[in-house]
Amino acid sequence: MNQTGRPAQHENVFEQELDDETVLYDSRDDSTHILNLTAAMVWELCDGQNDVDEIAAEVANRFELSPEKVEPDVRRILGQFTAARLVHWR
After folding, report:
1. Which of the four pLDDT bands, split at 50, 70 and 90, describes residue 53?
2. How far apart are CA 8 and CA 46, in angstroms?
């Protein structure tokens, strides 16, 4: 899966905070996606301005880890977002 460029949230995906979870609703197919803390952070950073390295660096900073440690997880999450058509790449 091509993860070059800058991921941006699809305009038809809506976010809702419920308790300690982030829930995404995709109005195109009525699907819902429940995000854990890390995935919610990645989602928040999918603004079309940050590339994969910048997202990994910010997630690493929040968890006080090295970007190299979190990058595989960030790429996996972005791959899942892409496969579910929650983000598109600019």
Report:
1. very high
2. 5
